């Protein structure tokens, strides 16, 4: 057992001063069989601690239905086995470029603007969740022989709200559930963020990517005493679909890290190893200074231009950081672990079956609802996936413009069974008018819920209605298709022969592998959708880029035949087969 305390100017471990050299690694973005390798790599970079968030929605996607909360405890055990300490950030909100900031969609759908406040409609589910989660953390605190040194209260709350009574209630809840190690908050180094997001008697830390002396100067105006810590040193950044890949010069980033340490501060690299947003869990942002503008969904890769890349390989940034961190280490740094096995030889998929989207929805979808106005995804219990909305245009009537209000995020439209166009929030109307009578179907996809800013928790689907000219079309039939349904239900899908020329639908095929190991899946000719290998959801693919392939962790593959599913949501080029390549 160890005692970790927060002093007037330093952290102390068993009575001795200690500087935390930490790095973020999200257990939920790394295959469990590879945790040990990634942790050993971080230790070799010179870190003595690892930090992780906990995404509530991953573990409770449906209210009251929990799954694998024990992964949190197993990860902390792996951290201890790797000889590292741990910082845990349990939320309930985490941001993290993760779907809805880690908050279940069923809760934001119910709580609305009361989210992240003391309102009972928010706090009651939070109490239930912490009652389930904290037994994985409390026994693994440092004062009980575990690795956990600190636990965060909420996350960057000053960027969102000012209900400090809510923060105090969360801190009291953590204590009541058995958290005895120091608590902390983290916010941007700005006055309004620190006043809204910090608590008296709780360590305040700051998040930034550069100008450490100025950032810590702002913190000192609010907190004259206490250890300095950058809880998120943004040493890289994330990418959006349709944007450019973001990278930071390794030498410049290493210089910014050295400045933090020269201030006498502790640091947490965000990210040390980013990993992958498997399963379609990537979040989204809103553009503009107030985060109210253009919708910008995040790519599946969370490489983050981190010092350890998405495939677990040390980069130039790793070696530059190691040079800096070695000056602050207690002794010689260990060598990086041997690289993990990679795929021995490329493999080309043989696609053997296909089912149209209607057949997939019939086999795996939820019940159909009929309502005057279209229900949101949250009303249908859809976390990630798509909803088919169907409505009739009465007739006879002249051709009029057809448009939607409040579309989130993308709708593929069919009129009397024929493709009629793709709608987005920015372009919500069909180019050609529609005459009545006609049957209109809109297959609406969620591209990821906003994870930061005032638009967090916004609903998905057709949230404002369907218009023909200026008239609402009522009696909307809606049926949802959640991504989780594929994990256990694909056997119910009635596959048929491949369609001529390709097309949307669920494709099934086989990849024959020799020498299983880390690989990447390329999908030439395919526009947008999701890919599974042996039932493991690799995430979203999209020809919009900048991401061009999906990472396949070696433990997902097996020697010989491997089953591939592709849920294509747009037109495809059928003569270009998927292929598996070494990383």
Automatic annotation (TrEMBL):
It comes from the Bacteria. The keyword NADP does not apply. Residues 504-562 form the Beta-galactosidase galactose-binding domain. Residues 374-475 form the Beta-galactosidase 1-like first all-beta domain. Transmembrane segments: none annotated. Pfam families: BetaGal_ABD_1 (PF21317), BetaGal_gal-bd (PF21467), Glyco_hydro_35 (PF01301). The keyword RNA-binding does not apply. Keywords: Glycosidase, Hydrolase. Belongs to the glycosyl hydrolase 35 family. This is Beta-galactosidase.
């Amino acid at each position: 057992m160890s005692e970790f305390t927060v002093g007037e100017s330093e952290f102390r471990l068993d009575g001795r001063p200690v500087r935390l050299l930490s790095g973020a690694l999200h257990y939920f973005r790394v295959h469990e069989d590879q945790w040990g390798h990634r942790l050993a790599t971080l230790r070799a970079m010179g870190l003595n601690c690892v930090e992780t968030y906990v995404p509530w929605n991953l573990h409770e996607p449906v209210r009251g239905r929990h799954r694998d909360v024990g992964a949190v405890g197993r990860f902390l055990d792996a951290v201890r086995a790797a000889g590292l300490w741990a910082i845990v950030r349990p939320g309930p909100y985490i941001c993290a470029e993760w779907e809805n900031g880690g908050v279940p969609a069923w809760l934001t759908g119910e709580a609305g603007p009361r989210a992240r406040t003391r309102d009972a409609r928010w706090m009651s589910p939070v109490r239930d969740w912490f009652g389930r989660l904290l037994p994985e953390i409390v026994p693994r605190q440092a004062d009980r022989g575990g690795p956990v040194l600190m636990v965060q209260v909420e996350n960057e709350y000053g960027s969102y709200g000012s209900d400090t009574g809510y923060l105090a209630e969360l801190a009291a809840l953590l204590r009541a559930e058995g958290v005895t190690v120091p608590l902390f908050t983290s916010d941007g180094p700005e006055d309004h963020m620190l006043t809204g997001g910090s608590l008296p008697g709780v360590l305040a830390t700051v998040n930034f990517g550069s100008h450490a002396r100025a950032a810590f100067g702002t913190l000192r105006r609010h907190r004259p005493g206490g250890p300095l810590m950058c809880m998120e040193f943004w040493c890289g950044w994330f990418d959006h679909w349709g944007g450019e890949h973001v990278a930071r010069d390794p030498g410049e980033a290493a210089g910014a890290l050295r400045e933090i340490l020269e201030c006498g501060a502790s640091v947490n690299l965000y990210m040390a190893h980013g990993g992958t947003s498997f399963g379609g869990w990537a979040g989204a942002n809103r553009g503009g200074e107030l985060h109210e503008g253009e919708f910008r969904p995040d790519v599946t890769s969370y490489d983050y231009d981190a010092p350890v890349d998405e495939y677990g390989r040390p980069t130039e940034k790793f070696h530059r950081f190691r040079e800096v961190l070695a000056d602050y280490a207690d002794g010689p740094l260990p060598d990086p672990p041997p690289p993990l096995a990679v795929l021995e030889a490329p493999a080309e998929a043989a696609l053997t079956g296909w089912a149209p989207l209607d057949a997939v929805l019939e086999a795996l979808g939820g019940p159909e609802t009929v309502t005057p106005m279209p229900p949101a995804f949250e009303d249908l219990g859809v976390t990630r996936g798509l909803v088919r909305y169907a409505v009739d245009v009465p007739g006879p009537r002249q051709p009029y413009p057809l448009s939607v209000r409040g579309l989130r995020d993308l709708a593929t439209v069919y009129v009397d069974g024929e493709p009629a166009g793709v709608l987005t929030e920015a372009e919500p109307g069909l180019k050609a008018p529609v005459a009545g009578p006609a049957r209109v179907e809109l297959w609406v996809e969620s591209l990821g819920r906003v994870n930061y800013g005032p638009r967090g928790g916004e609903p998905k689907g057709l949230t404002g209605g369907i218009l023909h000219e200026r008239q609402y079309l009522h009696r909307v039939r809606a049926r949802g298709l959640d991504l989780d349904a594929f994990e256990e239900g694909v056997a119910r899908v009635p596959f048929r022969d491949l369609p001529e020329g390709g097309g949307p639908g669920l494709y099934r095929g086989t990849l024959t592998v020799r020498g299983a190991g880390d690989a990447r899946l390329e999908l030439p000719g395919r526009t947008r959708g999701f890919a599974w290998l042996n039932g493991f959801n690799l995430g979203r693919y999209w020809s919009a880029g900048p991401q061009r392939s999906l990472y396949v962790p070696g433990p997902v593959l097996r020697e010989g035949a491997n089953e591939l599913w592709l849920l294509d949501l747009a037109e495809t080029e059928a003569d270009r087969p998927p292929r598996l390549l070494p990383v």
